[in-house]
Amino acid sequence: MRQVEFDHAGSRIRWTEVPGAEPARVYLHGLGSMSAVYHAHVAARPELCGRRSLFLDLPGHGISDRPADFGYTLDDHAHAVATAMDHAGVAAAELIAHSMGGAVALVLAHRRPDLVSRLVLTEANLDPFPPPSAGSSGIAAFDEDEFVDSEFARVLERVGPEWAATMRLTDPRALYRTAVGLRKGSEPMMRTILEEAAIDRIYLQGEQTGALEGREGLEAAGVRVVTVPDAGHNVMFDNPDAFAAAIAGRF
């Protein structure tokens, strides 16, 4: 395990790392998740092993610290990831990012383009105010103290055992503030960053999730959009073969 301070209070972001060839691959998880849980089984596949791989847990999540006075906005998370990558000596990396982690990856690519050479995004949040069915919208619908004091336990019951397994390790206040930050989005907005980025970009959409809004605009901007068969939001679990192929550049 590696770690580095990311705020004025000495809080630390942590990650596990597999040595290998450059450029490194940096894996970012979604809201209430952990990076190694969602990505290590894919990174170990023959077509992907041999590359340096970092499995980062965002502030408030997994094994990273959870400061009470941290904002947990997309910018805040992107800053923490940049701090970790700088400390690890990683530049021009491939970012493999899921859901909310994809939004963080896009903000990072915009703020620190030196750190990112390629984006592989899986159902990343591209727009503000996700639909009511989205987990972040349901969390952000409450007041912060109300969510922390009473609703967090109810959310764990509603999301099902798979997501709850990692969400229960997320600090409730960090989870709430991250959901609020995700609902607000970034400036410029994540979709605009993706369309304007001058790097290799691929966006994976699970077939079971439905059509991707604004797909034509993304493709016109040079983003490769792939509908992954037999997969929902968690493509890396539902269809790991397709997920690995996308990371390996076989689409």
TrEMBL record:
GO MF annotation, one: tropinesterase activity
Superkingdom assignment: Bacteria
E.C. no: 3.1.1.10
Cell wall biogenesis/degradation keyword on record: no
Pfam families, per the entry: Abhydrolase_1 (PF00561)
Sequence ranges assigned to domain AB hydrolase-1 in this UniProt record: 26-142
Family matches, as SUPFAM superfamilies: alpha/beta-Hydrolases
Gene3D superfamilies documented for this protein: alpha/beta hydrolase
Keywords per UniProt: Hydrolase
Top class in the EC scheme: hydrolase
Protein name from the UniProt record: Tropinesterase
Protein species of origin: Microbacterium hydrocarbonoxydans
